[in-house]
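ok so I'm stuck.
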Amino acid sequence: MKKYEPHTAPKLLKLKREFTNKRLEDISQDPDERITELESVQVQMDNIDIVSKITDRDLMIHIMNCLPEQYDPIIDTILLESQTCYILPQVHSCEHYYQFS
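replied:
not stuck anymore, here's the structure
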């Protein structure tokens, strides 16, 4: 992030839109690159003085929700394990909101 970048509500809205719209479009894209981009936006949002932090859990849910459907078996496994092993605490309680399959 640039040192003199604005820390205002419009900047936050722009970053939130960028965060929401970043998704892995197809299976051939490298997920690590997209995750790194999302983490960068998360840090920029966290640096704005307005209370609107993206938690690591929010980031994880967003990433899982924005993967192509080819990742559904992996997501299902993660969600199943989170219910039994608490890998992703409380993510399974948000399934109805985020429309996990």
